[in-house]
Specification:
The chain has 10 helices and 14 strands. By secondary structure, it is of the alpha+beta class. Strands 1, 4, 7, 8, 9, 10, 11 and 14 form an 8-stranded antiparallel beta sheet that branches.
């Protein structure tokens, strides 16, 4: 792996959904998540991280150093056990080995970071090591995302759908062929998500590198492209605005940079937005503090 990044970053992701459900709420029948006080749509950070992980797994195909730790169908302790094996430790001997080698915690952490991209990026809670009283079970990652919120209130709709067959012949005999259900969509919503990258944590903890950073930008831009489903409709990342500080700890508070990004309607005539072309996205570069450079991708 290459050296850790040396510059702090903040970034803004602008993405939209058309006739789809960007993030269903299991506590509300899988309806799109909505802030009940404002009517703004919500997409959780966990949802977006999942899509980034899926993209990396798709393009890297479990290549050494680029594996994904939090993935469907793989228990976490199976991956944890690989670190034990690599360092000639097991759950029964780990406490004794730690007495012999005070650096064992760091060696396990570093092995996990070197082998799993998402630990290097987002951090992880590795329960196996926590239970073993090791000080490496909770790794704080340098890349963090906030919740995405829609720019304007969204209007979730429940559409009735039908299917023409049942699962079994008995169901057909008792209920008939046709059954009905609901499909939840948002006709259109433009969302904004803000993120942070700490070069300090990358250097001290996970080793998140320039190569990792390039893959992160690629994954964000393409996170919906290989994640199509009937439920999600048409989703696309429209803009990725990156603020690069010229130092490890940064040159300005994140909020000042985020406030420079404006997403506004072109026409305020009361009609609902139905396309990205209904908005303008601008960055007030003249208001940015010294030491900040802006890059737009999308």
């Amino acid at each position: 792996m290459s050296e850790p990044i040396k510059n702090r970053y903040e970034f803004v992701i602008i993405f939209d959904v058309e006739n789809g459900n960007p993030n269903g709420d299991p506590d509300a029948g899988n309806m799109p998540r909505v802030d009940p006080e404002t009517g703004l749509g919500i997409v959780t950070d966990v949802c977006l991280k999942r899509k980034i992980r899926n993209y990396v797994e798709t393009v890297k195909e479990d290549a050494t150093g680029w594996r994904i730790y939090v993935k469907d169908g793989v228990p976490l302790n199976r991956s944890d056990a690989e670190a034990y094996t690599a360092l000639d430790v097991d759950e029964k001997t780990v406490k004794e080995k730690k007495k012999q080698d005070p650096q064992l915690d760091l060696k396990i952490r570093d092995w996990m970071c070197q082998n799993f991209y998402d630990i290097r990026t987002f951090g992880a809670v590795m329960t196996t090591f926590v239970k073993a009283a090791l000080n490496c079970g909770q790794v704080r990652g340098p890349v963090q995302l906030g919740f995405a919120r829609s720019v304007e209130p969204v209007a979730p709709q429940a559409l009735s759908i039908s299917r023409i067959t049942q699962a079994t012949q008995k169901d057909i005999d008792e209920k008939g062929s046709h059954t009905f259900g609901d499909k939840y969509i948002i006709p259109y919503g433009l969302y904004r998500c803000e993120g942070y990258i700490s070069a300090n944590l990358a250097r001290k903890t996970t080793g998140f590198s320039e190569e990792d950073l390039s893959l992160l930008w690629e994954a964000i831009l393409n996170m919906f492209e290989n994640d199509r489903s009937a439920a999600r409709g048409k989703m696309a990342v429209r803009d990725l605005i990156i603020f690069r500080h010229d130092s490890e700890l940064g040159c300005a508070p994140a909020w000042k940079l985020f406030e420079a990004v404006k997403v506004e309607r072109k026409k305020n005539d009361g009609s609902p937005a139905r396309a990205y072309s209904d908005y303008t996205v601008t960055v007030d570069e003249d208001s940015l503090p010294t030491g900040i450079t802006v890059t737009r991708m999308g």
